[in-house]
Amino acid sequence: MLREGWDVPAVSVILLLRKFSSRVYGQQVVGRGLRLNVRQEDTQEFCAVVDHEKLNHQWLWDIVGARIRKEVDQGNLFGDDDLPPRRKPQLLESPENLIDIPEPEEEEEADFSDIEGLTVVEGDYPNWEKILQSFQYAEVVEISRVEIESVRGKRLTKDGFTEIVEPPAEVPTANRNEDSDLHELVESLKHNVRDVAAALLAEDGIGSHELGYFYNVLMDHVREKLLDGKSAGLATVDSLKHAIRHRHNIAHNFREKPGLVASMIKYMKRDPNASQ
């Protein structure tokens, strides 16, 4: 419910029962517990989030600056040392500097005449798989390395003497483990595809309960179009980088077909071999 926009300020304890697959959702869920219950200057509040080390959420606690208490059991209680510092009262220091803003003399009316009659036609695509097959992704050119062959210098003298000097020494790149790079790219691709899936569903007003299915469909689409038919774990480093660079184009293709996302949910096709 915390992920669906259900907002109750009295939430002060959150129990995490599964791993966040998206950084956006992780911050959103915890953020709903950080709303103030009592807006008094002398009131101190805290939100307790019960987590487990195996879920690997340290990145989230680093973002929100959480205080972590380990080896917690049922007998543990929160004490005064767990409370945050008291909020500083907001006082007006120089009231003489206040400026009165006059009310507008006449109310301004927005002019929407230029968009009158504008309609967005949403299509209905029972055979949405054919639409996905038609999407094309051109090669993305990316400057990944620049080499300096020589440096031309000009002395600031009257004769305008020009000299050619040797290029600067090449900075050696650190030797990284290829398997580690591959794993990071796979995880990055999955995170990007999940974020694209969540954004497209939200734009169509579809709840995140369909995120797992829609994510699997997008991963199958990425595998077929951008990973040479291979799963993310078996794809090459170059293919993974190519797919990650196309994440915005993937979202663009779906937005160019209003009604496509809704049709994919409406005419859902469960594939037992869908990407996990």
Features:
276 residues; 4 strands; 8 helices; single chain; two-stranded antiparallel sheet; mainly alpha; disordered C terminus
Can you tell me about this structure?
This protein has 276 residues and is mainly α. It is built from eight helices and four strands, in the order βαβααββααααα. A two-stranded parallel ribbon has the order 1-2. The protein has a two-stranded antiparallel ribbon with strand order 3-4.
Question: Summary?
Answer:
This protein has 276 residues and is mainly alpha-helical. The chain has helices at 23-32, 58-64, 128-134, 178-203, 211-226, 237-245, 247-255, 260-266, and strands at residues 13-15, 48-50, 151-154, 162-165.
Span between termini:
24 Å
Low-pLDDT ranges: 272-276
- What characteristic shape results from the CA principal axes? extended
Tally of helical runs: 8
Write down the overall mean pLDDT.
81
Q: Helices and strands, in N-to-C order?
A: EHEHHEEHHHHH
Find the structural class using helix and strand composition: mainly alpha
List the helices and strands and how they pair.
Blueprint lengths: L12 E3 L7 H10 L15 E3 L7 H7 L63 H7 L16 E4 L7 E4 L12 H26 L7 H16 L10 H9 L1 H9 L4 H7 L10
Parallel strand pairs: 1-2
Antiparallel strand pairs: 3-4
Helix pairs in contact: 4-5, 4-6, 4-7
